[in-house]
Amino acid sequence: MKKTVLSLTIIMTIFSCNSVKNVNTSSVADAATLLSSLSSNSTIQQVSSLFSLLDSNNDEAISSTEAIGSVAENFTTLDTDSNSSLNLTELTGLLGLLK
Question: Are strands 62-63 and 85-86 parallel, antiparallel or unpaired?
Answer without folding.
Answer: antiparallel
